[in-house]
């Protein structure tokens, strides 16, 4: 691995984006803006003090208190200045990182320069490092220009060196993580789907900001995905004070939580990027079968580790919540395991030659989805045992959890089989369209249930139990007496899965056409 | 130098390349010709390791491109049909970037960059921004980039498309200098005149299959087992020509019009020379007697018409 300062991709960005004139201009603009912000802080504090002096009698301020406030004024000004600078740097670097990295690979594809990079001897890791730090290089330079000013302001504002260091640690780690997320998104989208990619990028940025709201949920640690969670307590404002997140019930500082999440989830993003970065678009598959099972286990494990019982106070609601989340995890893993039509055809032609071919890397997804669900179920049992003192535990939890998992698995398998079928058609952006069709199906099922419930509530329930997995989450399954509609729904979905598998096999017939126009 | 064995590539339910087996020896300039959609670009992308074959094997300089992609890339220089360059870099910076990306020894890079810039005729633009270059200059810069790491194999996909005649001549000169450096060149094109007088070997692709491949002269001969001979004479001689040539078993399709004519000849050079001598002896005042050379385009049309269904 080439060190980053010798990485050709990083040097390319350095040369292109930081020519002397531009660098000097940027540095000058940073200084001017910093001076303007400082003047703003000073002016604001001066008017605040003038107001206090005028209303000292009304506010019952003694002369000594006023004098103390006057003495503290420079510190307050510098601290306010420092706070604004830090937040500005956080906003600039994370935004810039996300948007530049989110266009890095799709942009190269669009410019027709990507093949030349892929044809060089740069390894996926070297390309990744060069782009991750190179694409938002100008933003990093802005941070570098701000650093001495922020350090000075932090020290004069008595924030302390540790505070400044922690702030920068969060800014840089948050920017690297969000940059990785952006690059992952960029790699998934073809140049022609760039618009969708950009919408996704906006979504990631909003999620990155709003996820800090998860601090009041049953998984407060998730809030640490946003650097704001660790950033706000650094500035000692009452309205920003948060409780601490917990790992297996032990409190940890927000900064530590953020770093743990960035490192672990960042590792998965890096793994997916390294697997796919230099691959042809059609051949990309973010995770291997075993990695997908591992990823499902990791996500489950992380959720159990971050769990803090708040609204979920009994085993049944906890199990239902975790099964529902596993539905999303299985869907994501199913998408990550989609096989390219070409590989699936090769598997189909050769599958009879290999024993256990159903579990082959290029074979169908359902055996691996079932394995991921089994791992999820095992971890659910482990989670229920681990939290049994707080949530209580009954032996029927084993059967209830199993049935709920089975229902969710069947629906997800159907949806993934449908999207795999879409990939075998000549549809443009088949995965995206497949997901939209699946979404449309669920919306239609909900509307049908609502319309049905206009006539009778039972009819409405029947519809959503037959058409969606929601029925299995209905409260209180005494002795496993789920509505019959749930089992009818399971039967219908199993039938649909068989039909979809037949449709997929029909499309795997030997290729007969010849030569396509470019 | 390039070995393709039973190569196959499928897209959706179409076979873009089918059972392609080809061996290109070292030092050859191999022209891959065929219409759009014949599978040339797909083949080239598989050779460069940019596209994974559905089936078959690609070896370049004895290295399996799929098995050891990074090692194989060291020996391959590639230029695609439609490409762009990093407009925000200077000419030397662009080549320096790729020299480093191909992991050339650090000490060799500055000299190599200068050499390649000189070969591409871009010395005056060395410190200029790429966005200021003309289309032809950018194309030459693209080839210079493909040559920067002294690849043993240079793979060029339609390198002259969209270039004016002057730029094409410059491009040809640049490729000659690559050949002189010892590179084996694989060049694809559907503009057949582009390859004439330049390639040593040729392959014709149709609908994903290689229908002919070999040394240029062999393929040309295969395309036309008979030669076309054109002659002109002065004065009266038509009857002598009709009698002299019309009776030869090696002559067919004799067509005479005014004081000139054309015929197909299937004999050897000696026999053709004897036919000319006989005409002169019989009193025909021959003004010119020459073989009409077939162009690659004509040869391609003849060969491909047998295969196209």
Pick out its properties.
heterodimer, A: 518 residues, mainly alpha, two-stranded antiparallel ribbon, 3 strands, B: 309 residues, alpha/beta, 6-stranded mixed beta sheet, 10 helices, 14 strands, elongated
Outline of the structure:
Chain A is an all-alpha fold and 518 residues long.
Question: Can you give a write-up of this model?
Answer:
The complex is a heterodimer of chains A (518) and B (309). With 518 residues, chain A is mainly α. In chain A, 71% of the residues lie in helices and 1% in strands. Chain A has 20 helices and 3 strands. In chain A, α15 runs antiparallel to α17. Chain A is globular and about 85 Å long. Chain A starts with 7 loop residues before the first helix and ends with a strand. Chain B is α/β, with parallel strands linked by helices. In chain B, α3 packs across α4 and α7 packs across α10. The interface between A and B is large, with 40 and 48 residues. β3 of chain A pairs parallel with β2 of chain B, so a sheet runs across the interface.
Present the secondary structure layout.
The complex is a heterodimer of chains A (518) and B (309).
Chain A: H1 8-17, H2 20-54, H3 63-102, H4 104-111, H5 114-118, H6 124-134, H7 137-156, H8 161-188, H9 194-210, H10 227-231, E1 246-247, E2 250-251, H11 254-276, H12 289-306, H13 315-336, H14 341-350, H15 366-386, H16 388-391, H17 396-424, H18 430-455, H19 457-467, H20 484-507, E3 513-514
Antiparallel strand pairs in A: 1-2
Chain B: E1 2-11, E2 14-24, E3 29-33, H1 40-47, E4 55-60, E5 63-64, H2 69-73, E6 76-79, H3 91-101, H4 109-119, H5 135-147, E7 153-157, H6 165-180, E8 184-189, E9 201-206, E10 209-215, H7 216-223, E11 227-234, H8 238-246, E12 251-257, E13 260-265, H9 269-281, E14 285-292, H10 296-307
Parallel strand pairs in B: 3-8, 3-9, 6-7, 7-8
Antiparallel strand pairs in B: 1-2, 1-4, 4-5, 9-10, 11-13, 11-14, 12-13
Helix pairs in contact in B: 3-4, 5-6, 7-10
